[in-house]
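Reviewers of the previous submission asked for a worked example of the structure-prediction workflow described in the proposal, so we include one complete record here. The input consisted solely of the amino acid sequence. No template or homolog information was supplied to the procedure at any stage.
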Amino acid sequence: IIDATPGGSPPFTIRWYRVESEPEEVQEIVDSSDYKVYPNGSLAIPDIDADNEGTYRVVLSNGDGSTSVDIEVTVLDIALVIEKQLPEEIIIAPEEDLNLELIVSTATTTLEDDITLSLQYSSNEIKKDLTKYLEFNLLEFTAENKYSKDNARIWGVNLRVPYQHSQASGNLTLVVRDSHSSDSTTTHLIIAKEANDEAPFFDPVPSSVKSFHGDDLFIQTSVKGSTPLTVLWFKLDPYSSEFIEIVNDDKFTIHSNGSLSILDTMEEDEGSYRVEVANNAGSAKVDIEIEVIQRIDLVIVKPLPRQTHVYHGKDLDLEVTVYAAITSEDDLTLSLGHSLKGSYKDITEYFTYTISEEDDVDDRTDDGSTWLIKFIVSYPFTDDLGHLTSYSEYW
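From that input alone, the workflow returned the following structure tokens.
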């Protein structure tokens, strides 16, 4: 709205014009869906956009003469942005007023008239509109600062929410709107009801894991701290780069102690996961990685020698190299047998071994890895010859 209240002796005649400079052309404005001329002489341009930019001329006349004024209209196409968001988490005591601050950039001319704020509270199934409790004041930044933008105004907003805002911890979402855009910011509000409340923690802390394709996976943890405890699991969406909450279904199960089960793991289950736990005294979170690998048949790539010698009463040192798609040395088991003249004896109890991961012996491109197994046989060998057979397995 362009105010053009006339002065002088009535009656008046007021006319508005669009002035085009190249080539110069003056076109009178009449009431239409694009313009509205009010009886007091003001001009309204509904739903203004870039096509309305330019020079406008208002001509005021009466029986004694006339006068005109040219006005330049610039349309600022700047979306409202909350430049300084609310903190990720806020801990307050019971009956404590909540004081917040943020910074907003917008093309609006006056924040008080053109901006509206709303505040929502949510906790589990509870949702409340707290806008009526919201109190705020503002300050426009006139000097250059790190939030300055061309054609935008930068506003600092201080907010106060009286303590009646909530009786339990939850999320607060503040929405800021102007005439054509909006932005929002969320903080997790924690009400520390008791001074001796214990903040939540994980014991044991969940860690990154590998799983074979098609296997069921159990990520073990246990959440500790003052009750009630709220546990949430999330998976990172590779397309939006946002963590999406996991809910219990036929594939995922979130156990009461915070552990997570994933049935029939597939390639799409790979990625980054996050577990969060919160209570009235605080919160904690852990990020882990899950890798799903294809199962590969174990192969002994460097077997035992065809013949070996050992002194009577001495230990026998041997080594083999195997290739398998295992996740750790704990997944391999070995057994050892001694055969002589058609008889066979299991002597697994007489040997100890160590396993270490080696560089691949060849350029394999699958999910397997090479493991060197060194073992010492402490067995009362006799003078008789025989055969030793080693078996390697993995689950």
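Residues 340 and 384 are 8 Å apart (CA to CA). We consider this example representative of the routine output the project will generate in years two and three.
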